[in-house]
Amino acid sequence: MAQEVRGVIAPGKDEPVRIETVVVPDPGPGEAVVRVQACGVCHTDLHYKQGGISDDFPFLLGHEAAGVVESVGDGVTDVEPGDFVILNWRAVCGKCRACLRGRPWYCFDTHNAKQRMTLASTGQELSPALGIGAFAEKTLVAAGQCTKVDPAVSAQVAGLLGCGVMAGIGAAINTGDVGRGDSVAVIGCGGVGDAAVAGARLAGAAKIIAVDIDARKLETARSMGATHTVNSRESDPVEAIRELTGGFGADVVIDAVGRPETYRQAFYARDLAGTVVLVGVPTPEMKLELPLLDVFGRGGSLKSSWYGDCLPSRDFPMLIDLHLQGRLDLGAFVTETIQLDEVEKAFERMHRGDVLRSVVVL
Ligand SMILES: [Zn+2]
Ligand SMILES: [Zn+2]
């Protein structure tokens, strides 16, 4: 039987979000209903509300979530009711050309639940943020979006791995392939940038240089493992990074902002044959101009990081285990816990840069 739950809806462009009753259908073939325990507030939710991602209002917001599987549809074998899971927004298909070549983290045909959740009041179909929609007591997803992890971890910490924190850690350990002794610079120290710092530390980087224009954020980056900080409002980050790396530049530079200026900084702040990782997401009007001779002459690789090039089934359980062993402090990303009706206020705090993550606890 379909169930009615409370959920946070973005009704229209730039309208305040509000709580509405959401109808969650029983899971169909390949689907699962998850009882959400915690869900982080991410910039992407704000972009949905602002109409920056699509016009498919109303949206059911929320996508950095963990919870317990309540029921599964026909053909679901990987998870069962009672499993503690982190939700992911890239359920790999196993059949596309990327998957068949053994690179499922690039899957070109990721999928979501086929059925739609609806508004109880009007019957309108909801568009779940990133195919998840977890600012709700329960949500319907594709079973492949559920990744089982050790239930010893708290849900408010685990959920963050579902998006921003995974993107940042993955930018360092997967895309950037940071290794022991490497020098790493991270430009932009919000949630994703700080996670990249934490990922670089986890991978054994010897020098981790955090760059931001906000002194408060640099302080946080230091607590996540940055060995040096550069305030790019006060000094040229390219020169500063070169100075801190014997005049050469860093082995890996991660742009967690995603603007032409920061990308250019990343490009010139890396050592010859070094790696640039772009994990910050640019907007459509942005253009990049670089001397092609420098692109050739400086060698190395220029990579983009999709969701940290993560494979949820491989990376989520591993990172949760490392967290439980005390080797990765995921709790440091949770600034505050809030209730479902406080999401609008949390957007304001996030916009002002006052929080790394507010997490809705259900
Ligand atoms: Zn997110
Ligand atoms: Zn695929």
Percentage of residues in strands: 25-35%
Number of helices: 11
Poorly predicted sequence stretches spanning 5 or more consecutive residues: none
Main sheet makeup: 7 strands, mixed
Bound molecules: zinc ion
Mean of residue pLDDT values: 97
Amount of helix: 25-40%
Distance N to C terminus? 22 Å
Describe the structure.
The protein is an alpha/beta fold and 362 residues long. The protein has eleven helices and 18 strands. The chain has helices at residues 43-49, 97-100, 155-158, 164-175, 191-202, 215-224, 237-244, 260-268, 292-297, 312-324, 343-351; strands spanning 3-10, 18-24, 31-40, 59-60, 64-72, 84-87, 118-119, 127-128, 138-142, 146-148, 183-187, 207-212, 228-231, 250-255, 270-278, 301-304, 336-338, 358-361. Strands 3, 5, 6, 9, 10, 17 and 18 form a seven-stranded mixed β-sheet that branches. Strand 12 (207-212), helix 6 and strand 13 (228-231) form a beta-alpha-beta unit. The longest helix is centred in the last third of the chain and has 13 residues, at 312-324. The protein is globular. The two termini are 22 Å apart. Bound molecules: zinc ion (2 copies). One zinc ion binds next to helix 2.
